[in-house]
């Protein structure tokens, strides 16, 4: 670990320093709390004054605040918090771009704010010879941003250290005699400037070694098969250690904790047996249930109050979110109302319809009237942020937010955080122009997405689950560090895209070069090795189908057999239960009519229990709310147009004759309009007209493709066939069969979704994805008409494409001979027989009535509407 250029101070030495003349500056809040507890333990009896302990960033900001309260100086009167800073950056970027750019303003604002902070904190010099177009654009945004800061009479956090350093140098700040640093593994250039100024002013600067005294006495590494086994091993280890040493403190460090927090909590609850723990992850307020409910209800009030109508999906979101009057007692009735709208497939709800529908919810209906009354008291048009914040509070209060019943500690803390969010909205009057209702709601949503919230830690918890950076500088009795692959430590470089890489590298900025990342990773690794008496590093050997390699920084560590053995801890004897299994298959009878066509085979391949529920028991999940444009309608619309055209033409020659006539475009438009009146009848008129224009462009592009092909005729178009296997009979509709001049026959299936299937992966997978063409081939083969090629036709505004396989080279662009595929092991006839055998085996399994609940990969269940019934969410893939 790189030593800081200051003298070292032990905890014992710190306790002897005068509290009045000593200040400890830590790298984060957690270390500040930990050190406070450690110092409190040194007080033997009575009351004693402890030294002051503050995080570095908080101390810097406090110096500015104290100076401003004293005498308003330096040309600014306040310090913007991180949220407001991002908003001002976003306004500056929007103003500079003038609405011409399609960039995500919030995302770019975050990158620009980071670039600005890097320039200031690392004193990065970018000479004109290094300027790039992106950097020049950033400088334009920065100029507008700084102008807005001056107009607001404010500075941001990144600019604070420069002022503090100047005040220290001119003896304008009262500093303690001793400054002690804790938890820092490196110092930015801006920090060094402040600390150098302190030393020049006579302050004794040192760093505390209290929680990083020695290397771990036990230091090992462990390889686990899968991510879940890694979690189970780590949790089992923590469980055993806490039972042996209930007063000990342990940690599980997870590099990707933000992404794994939900799975982590599920496993911790299941495996820890009631032991308390803390997960140090802070999701945005918008993701917390009460935050989601607040935003949903406010949006509903604004939509109905301002426009008099709302999409059912918006209304349903509010109903399901709760956080309102009778949040518990009327929850079932609210869910039933949402289900009714889904089945009804309504496009819009009027205010009268909404009020009529919620009459079945008496307490919500009463609260809604109060909320609308509160809304009507707010003047229309643009209002101050302060007025909108207070108006939103009154509306939520009238609705019964945050719901009935006694709140838990977490709910109470979340409600308080949301109230602070409203206060932050009200404070924007000093920074942004007055908005209308929609603008105020959008800003509140934006703040909720940007504001991270974590409830206070459980004081009784002895296990911390935290990320790599949160673990920096900490000390526990034992630490398990997960996910130590070669992609995590050292990590892939990620330089800020707005600053030239050369300038970043010269300044030694974080994430700028591989060497810089290796240095940081090495320092962090050394710190982790000193973070506990026992430290275990682990990694999963595979993550799904992807193999992992351990971090090279683990190379010298010994493997720990004992850590793996912890999985075999002795468990209490199981409770004696009686087991009864209804595992008898329910074979298909001749009296049953199975509907669903090809989807029967596809769902059977994906999950037999899904196929049993959907096609034998007719179980369906709730349909989604009506959304337009709907992909299903789009597909049916294009199918019908092509069916009518090819039924009329039959051959390419006839098509070329018709499409070459001057009036052909008008004729095609009339046909499209006729089909749209049938297939898109429920669509809003404006949207239907747009879809007609899109359909014209797609069909026109496809017919141009058809015109360039070698001669062919369409021998089948949307013709029905019967797929029969034992007692199972399925009605299929084959989109199209072409016959070429050579006599070869091609079976086509139209696709209008966002992507085309991939034969190499889909048809070779255990789940047999996108099996329509294989079922069609099996059906035609049973009729004695084995096709010579199988192909998909992609009809999409993004492009026209054909993809498929053939027995031999064929005159259709996009269809390749089977023999040219790297994965192909057999000739065409044998491969068709094998696909036929696979399809018919799935059909026999379905007919036999088996209902095993298994799937090969989670993506195979993407379109399943009954996932909760199949408990798809219960266990992660462990392939």
TrEMBL record:
Ranges where the PD-(D/E)XK endonuclease-like domain occurs? 599-866
Q: Which Pfam families match?
A: PDDEXK_1
Tell me the Gene3D superfamilies matching this sequence: 3.90.320.10
Which InterPro entries does the entry mention?
DNA_repair_protein_predicted, P-loop_NTPase, PDDEXK-like_dom_sf, PDDEXK_AddAB-type
The UniProt transmembrane annotation reads: none
Q: State the coiled-coil residue ranges.
A: none
Give the protein name, as stated in the record.
Answer: PD-(D/E)XK nuclease family protein
The species this protein was found in: Orrella daihaiensis
